[in-house]
DNA sequence: TGTACATATTCGCCAAGGCGGATACCATTA
DNA sequence: TAATGGTATCCGCCTTGGCGAATATGTACA
């Protein structure tokens, strides 16, 4: 019936406290260049939404939405102060995750760049 | 002109050897439940494509494509043996990455589940 | 060389989701 | 209370990419 050959192990790695769909959602949050740049910017220190807008150059609404997404996923934390909202990295393990992923990606950057199964050929620059 | 406020640090975390787009691509590979389940299955040990098909229940072509994607991104490694092709996890750091992500996701599973910015309300089960 | 079988690629379809622009929301200040 | 300004949400548009089905490719064996 096509279940796991070793359900216990698989469950131990992905199903315990956070199901596969949830973990996938978690990864997908960092699968967008804009959100990843925002996170990198916040790894540099706490910043307001307007700071982020100035930094990555997307519309204010989009940046706000991306930050909220990162917050929902537990990557960053929001702090209100009057009209301003400051975001900062919520957990030191986020740094570990990014550093680890960067190292792995760097070791495979040639194959990654050539991978046309994600982003297709010559990654269309998503209209200016 | 809206560049990094601290280019050196940001560069050190994301731009050194693997640019933001590449790392995003890397994360996006694990942002799909099917690929994540495949990876979990392979963390259990080496398996052929047909094994994987039987395990996750998607079409053979789709599974083959997902495995090739994981291989391109450096998560898994292929080994040909006659007509069969066996895939296995390529790097022990992949386990670290998954375990770390699972832990973080588990600590935020409530917020993650509630996050409608990814997958929208009641995550449509992508036709059975 | 023909057949069988495991894997890889191609195709059209359609949902997820990133985008800017408009606008709503809310705290500060006059 | 009205105006200002930072942030959040909503909207339609359009690309990315997951899906199965069909088909191509390649290997083993008769």
UniProtKB/TrEMBL annotation, chains A, B:
An annotated Gene Ontology molecular function: DNA binding
PROSITE patterns linked: HTH_ARSR_2
InterPro entries recorded: ArsR-like_HTH, HTH_ArsR_DNA-bd_dom, HTH_MetalResp_TranReg, WH-like_DNA-bd_sf, WH_DNA-bd_sf
Coiled-coil stretches: none
Alphabetically ordered keywords of this record: DNA-binding, Transcription, Transcription regulation
One Pfam family of this chain: HTH_5
Signal peptide: none
Keyword match Secreted: no
Protein name per Swiss-Prot or TrEMBL: ArsR family transcriptional regulator
Organism: Prauserella muralis
């Amino acid at each position: 019936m096509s279940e796991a050959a070793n359900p216990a192990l698989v469950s131990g790695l992905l199903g315990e406290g956070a199901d596969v769909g949830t973990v996938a959602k978690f990864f997908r949050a960092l699968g967008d260049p804009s959100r990843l740049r925002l996170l990198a910017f916040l790894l540099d220190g706490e910043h307001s939404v307007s700071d982020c807008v100035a930094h990555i150059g997307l519309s204010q609404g989009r940046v706000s939405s991306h930050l909220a997404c990162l917050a929902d996923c537990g990557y960053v934390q929001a702090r209100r102060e009057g009209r301003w909202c400051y975001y900062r990295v919520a957990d030191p393990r986020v740094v570990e995750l990014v550093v680890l992923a960067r190292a792995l990606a760097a070791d495979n950057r040639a194959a990654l760049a050539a991978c046309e199964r994600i982003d297709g050929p010559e990654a269309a620059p998503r209209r200016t």
